[in-house]
Amino acid sequence: MVQGRELCASGEPRENLSVLPNEIATCQQQVREQAWAFWNLNVIRAERPCSQHSLCIRCHPRIMYCTPPNFKEMAIRYPKFRKFAIQELSGRMTIDFKNPAALQALTITLLEKDFGLNVEIPLDRLVPTVPSRFNYVLWIEDLLQAAGSAGIEVRGIDIGAGASCIYSLLAAKTKGWHMLATEVDSDSYKYAVENVHRNNLQHLVQVKQTDTGVVLQGIVSEGQQYDFCMCNPPFFSSEEELDSESKSRSPARPPPHSCRTGSPSDVVVSGGEVAFISRIIEESKELGTMIRIYSSLLGHKSSMDPVKSLLQKAGVSSMVDTAFCQGRTTRWYIAWTFVASCNLQQAQHHDAQPYKKKDKPPLRWVVPQPSDSALYTLTTVGIRVKEMLQQLQMSVRGLRSNDKVQSFQVTAFNNTWSNQRKKRRAAVHSDSLNKDDPASTIPGSGQQSFKHSTAAEVPNTRCDARSASENASSNIGHEGEAYSECAAAVGFSEMNGPAVAQEMDPVHKDTGPGGTTGGQSVSHKRKLEDIISLSKKLKTDMQGCLLRAGVMVSKSGDDIHLEMTFVEGTGGRESLHQVMQYFKNRLKL
Ligand SMILES: C[S@@+](CC[C@H](N)C(=O)[O-])C[C@H]1O[C@@H](n2cnc3c(N)ncnc32)[C@H](O)[C@@H]1O
């Protein structure tokens, strides 16, 4: 990677690219860049977004791929994908995006994981990228809504289904739409038919082999009515154009991250995509309202203007276009209708989501049942958790307390949870040496809580360091939602000023054994002053707290869960893991 040569998708130089020092790291970085790019993320590497980023960092607002999928989880769960998973030095999983077999495994795995689809795609045919295909399906759904066709039994046509038959399978599986998929290539046709059967979707998807001479004519018979047609046309006019595309690519545009897949029959058509779409437009003039919405994807932005002017000449009653971006690849989409009452412009959405860094899920643990089941209640566990947090000298602020949830915001400035045994021994030792030294009880010295701690040292074997599968499963399922719940419980916005004051209150009140705030001795007063000055220092250090987290005790069925969500802190998530481990080892009811 050479700084200065790197450009944003729009052609502007990227800023602040990090170049790792050695060759291995650079190589790792490149693989990672490919991965990021593949997931629509290359642009986040530019600290200062270019003028077009607001436009190009886009995926459909309803798509799940605005955050990248968890390759680690996929590698654990899917052996087909695991074969191609590469672990970087950082531990992050990626694949070689230049390897068609790896792309094939990625597509097949995502279709299975996210859509329950079992698909086979030959390596000599186009391997579709799942996010870009699902973007189109979701956009069609928007168009149907705009055309007033949503909610009814939807019938669509997928022109050029390819071997994967991906659009029809996604549309049928996720939306229950009836699809007619057409394909001219006999090998692709066979694969498409098998893929439909493999997923038992014959009742929704019909695959038809067609002639190159037609696109829609002869497919839609008299009296038939379809709600939409969609198409990912062959982009190129010749194999030479296909080959020269990468060479003729403007130096302002970076090379594509992933390799090209598919045969020339997939991507080459006489006259290129404009000619192909102009055939759809011509035929749409004939078919008129028999198909309510016509649409096509465009592989080249330069095709948009000629296509629009053809549509204007065709006298369409409404048209709309959009673009979705995946990594360095943008695809444009156009739709039109001859139905006078359809205003497709209503489907114009400018609220596409920018990439959001995936929120880390909370750490979660099922609190084991004690022998006395009467103690296994939300209240008892909540109280015990709060006590333990306070014993750890954390500031604990109650946030929510009802019959389902008890949640707290906690802040720690010192690591009072690691090496407990060692610290206790040291505390006992120093205690015997300085029995009367008041400093030994100053909160924050890390000693007071250990003296008072009654927690057993017996490690809980069920809860030892997280296993790989536990790590993985923490990312599976609806942790995102759980995270939001916990994060909401934590109340990010409330986490500043008031928490500080409240945090310090217990310290002020804690005047030591037998002490009162009135009529104190001089030494006791000094001790209080020390504590107050320490408190003030801690207040000013608030920004640099070691750990701030949300802690939630919740009931789910018969189980009581303890969840911890990292918010901030110099100790990072590692410190949260340590605190969770502390609870796993010591929480006794
Ligand atoms: C770019 S590929 C798209 C495949 C698939 N829809 C996808 O998005 O991955 C274009 C497909 O259209 C097919 N095709 C080309 N001309 C066609 C025609 N006149 N009618 C139907 N399919 C056609 C090609 O064989 C190829 O499979």
Automatic annotation (TrEMBL):
Protein name in UniProt: U6 small nuclear RNA (adenine-(43)-N(6))-methyltransferase
Enzyme Commission no: 2.1.1.-
Keyword field: Methyltransferase, S-adenosyl-L-methionine, Transferase
Pfam (any one): Methyltransf_10
UniProt family annotation: Belongs to the methyltransferase superfamily. METTL16/RlmF family.
Keyword RNA-binding set for record: no
Comp. bias (Polar residues): 442-452
TM spans (from-to): none
PANTHER family xrefs: RNA N6-ADENOSINE-METHYLTRANSFERASE METTL16, SAM-DEPENDENT METHYLTRANSFERASE
